[in-house]
Amino acid sequence: xxxxxxxxxxxxxxxxxxxxxxxxxxxxxxxxxxxxxxxxxxxxxxxxxxxxxxxxxxxxxxxxxxxxxxxxxxxxxxxxxxxxxxxxxxxxxxxxxxxxxxxxxxxxxxxxxxxx
Amino acid sequence: xxxxxxxxxxxxxxxxxxxxxxxxxxxxxxxxxxxxxxxxxxxxxxxxxxxxxxxxxxxxxxxxxxxxxxxxxxxxxxxxxxxxxxxxxxxxxxxxxxxxxxxxxxxxxxxxx
Lengths: 116, 113
Fold this sequence. Notes:
The complex is a heterodimer of chains A (116) and B (113).
Chain A: E1 3-5, E2 10-14, E3 19-21, E4 24-26, E5 31-38, E6 44-50, E7 56-58, E8 64-68, E9 73-78, E10 87-95, E11 104-106, E12 110-115
Parallel strand pairs in A: 2-12
Antiparallel strand pairs in A: 1-4, 3-9, 5-6, 5-10, 7-8, 8-9, 10-11, 10-12
Chain B: E1 5-7, E2 10-13, E3 19-24, E4 31-37, E5 43-50, E6 53-57, E7 65-68, E8 75-79, E9 88-95, E10 103-104, E11 108-112
Parallel strand pairs in B: 2-11
Antiparallel strand pairs in B: 1-3, 3-8, 4-5, 4-9, 5-6, 7-8, 9-10, 9-11
């Protein structure tokens, strides 16, 4: 079974500072890992994914994430936070070895608050 | 950019009534999903649909729920007899294949009174 943990309900950071949003996962097969962002009263938007290859993946809006197999982590990072980055961030995992539906399981979400 | 379209954006229904939530996935996508989110919190998987049949469903997706792809474009979620606890934001999503992220619709806010 797949599972995702986002240990922080909220992350606070000052504008211009680097940010990290943590995620750990559990999956029996090969992990396909994703980050999504949700702005108020909106649907989820895809930010980036890790399927295979380089452990550091780059995505939209200057975000990147680092896949660490030994720690089963996929933390989201950005070198310099913007106030407009304030939103709810979801880490998600899919079992890449699976067949059929490619169900994705989402973490509980981390609210990022960037202060000006 | 292609979008997943959901209608209506907001639906209010009385407990015990049937509701149908509608989605138009991206045209070349092959996998379709329904998720729900209660009070802006955790996003919960309901069902996945591929090749005109359900691939997987969660324990939430009981006999009161059903999905259908009646034509080549629409993908619907039906709740036969709504309960108060069905009140949530329902999101439709689609993807072209397994290695890709989902494209989500904007959601339907279902309020059961």
